[in-house]
Amino acid sequence: MPITSKPQLPYEDKLPRINPPESVAGRAASRKGCVDFLDYLELCYNVQGDGINITLKLKVFGSEISLGECNLTLANPSCTLGGGALGFKAEVTSTFHLADLSLHIKGTACAPFAGCTDGETTIQL
Fold first, then answer.
1. Which residues, including other chains, have CB under 8 Å from residue 17's CB and lie 6 or more apart?
2. pTM of the full predicted structure?
3. Per-residue pLDDT tens for 97-111?
4. Of 96, 116, 117, 121, which Cα lies nearest the Cα of 106?
5. In the beta sheet, which residues pair with residue 104?
6. Does 10 sit behind a cis peptide bond, omega within 30 degrees of 0 on the bond before it?
7. 98, 77 in Cβ contact below 8 A?
8. Hey, how many other C-beta atoms are within 10 angstroms of the C-beta on 46?
9. SS3 state of residue 39
């Protein structure tokens, strides 16, 4: 005699913690990625649930140096990361906008003998 199972009605989500449709991750088209920023910075993001993990790296002379990481949440939608190494320095502020599911990045980077440059970009999540 074969064993059969009947579907439960109404549908029961056994894994509700994994990207429900009302979460940021459930609505985002892009959940993770990296962007080269101001020539020698790399900012990476990873959307998980209602939070976004941000990492910032300095990439010079074939090396990658971590300048920090932070977690953006609905309660804390902005963070600033920065630091310096090998004569280079940078400061970048990342801000999450829930209304249009975007990540706005604004920063300043300084290189020896070249001076400083400012820039900003927006990533549509």
1. 49
2. 0.80
3. 998 999 999 999 999
4. 121
5. 95, 122
6. yes
7. yes
8. 16
9. coil
Q: Where are the alpha helices (DSSP H) in 12-123?
A: 24-27
What does the block give as tokens for 18?
């994994």
- Here the tokens at position 11 are 């549908």
Amino acid residing at 59: K
Helices (H), the chain: 24-27
Chain segment 9-22, per-residue pLDDT in tens: 455 655 555 555 66
Is residue 89 within 8 A of residue 34, CB to CB? The reply is: no
Pairwise CA distance, residues 46 & 31, whole Å: 6
Region for residue 31 given its phi and psi (left: phi exceeds 0; alpha: psi -120 to 50; beta: otherwise): alpha
| 43: three-class secondary structure by DSSP | strand
